[in-house]
Specification:
By secondary structure, the chain is an alpha/beta fold. Helices cover 39% and strands 17% of the residues. It has one domain: HAD superfamily/HAD-like (Rossmann fold, 3-Layer(aba) Sandwich), CATH 3.40.50.1000. Strand 5, helix 8 and strand 6 form a beta-alpha-beta unit. Bound molecules: magnesium ion (MG) and zinc ion. Zinc ion binds next to helix 7.
């Protein structure tokens, strides 16, 4: 990949399992273990139901009155992948636009990211509503007319809305939920299941474990 000085790099970085070590929604569900959540999770993973449908239903199993307790747990259990702060700094110093594109929920995504210098408007995630008996999830960034996957937080739509001829799109992610966006990217920086999928689909990719690795990969294009 050659980057000319006229081109602008935009990074679309996943949150769960990418910025954090593991998937926060799964961790929350495992911990509170509401009856029926595992069936819903299996249906999502097998592609029998959409992510929006499944995630909405899983949170619908939890009482809204547990808000404080669940929020506290979600923040406490999250571990940030090493080098994330340095990665943000690197992007800022090299005029790389960094967007966080998360299928996670605002009540844990915002607080976990609050100690890092990422502006709120550059964080895309789903939102939560605790005003009814059970937790309801809202989807401010759902699929555009060109996506029919019922994503919930639609990463391909976000990529499309930020694409033009002068942008180099880099997707960083870990799972099947990043694949559709990865297929639209100029470069994928991948770990775990997404890495396997990049190999299968012959996508241009690099492997990462920590954000220090990501910085090294970016150096090839920015120096
Ligand atoms: Mg992920
Ligand atoms: Zn979509």
């Amino acid at each position: 990949m050659f980057v000319s000085h006229l081109q602008k790099i935009i990074i679309f970085c996943d949150f769960d399992g990418t910025i954090t070590d593991s998937d926060n929604i799964i961790n929350i569900m495992r911990y509170y273990h509401p009856p029926g959540w595992e069936t819903i999770k299996d249906d999502i993973l097998a592609g029998r139901i959409s992510i929006r449908n499944g995630v909405g239903r899983m949170f619908g199993l939890l009482p809204a009155s547990w808000r404080e307790e669940i929020t506290h747990y979600a923040i406490k259990q999250a571990t940030i992948r090493p080098g994330f702060d340095k990665f943000i700094q690197y992007c800022q110093e090299h005029n790389i636009r960094l967007l966080i594109t998360s299928g996670g929920i605002d009540f844990f995504v915002y607080p976990i990211l609050s100690s890092f210098s990422v502006p709120r408007q550059d964080i895309y995630c789903n939102s939560s509503d605790f005003s009814s008996e059970h937790i309801q999830i809202h989807w401010p960034y759902s699929c555009d007319a060109q996506c029919s996957m019922d994503c919930g937080m639609c990463k391909p739509s976000i990529l499309r809305s930020h694409s033009n001829i002068d942008t180099i799109k880099i997707v960083i992610g870990d799972s099947i939920t990043d694949l559709a966006a990865a297929k639209m990217a100029d470069l994928v920086i991948a770990r775990d299941f997404l890495l396997q999928k990049c190999q299968e689909h012959s996508l241009p990719y690099k492997e990462f474990v920590t954000f220090y690795d990501v910085i090294e990969i970016l150096k090839e294009f920015t120096n």
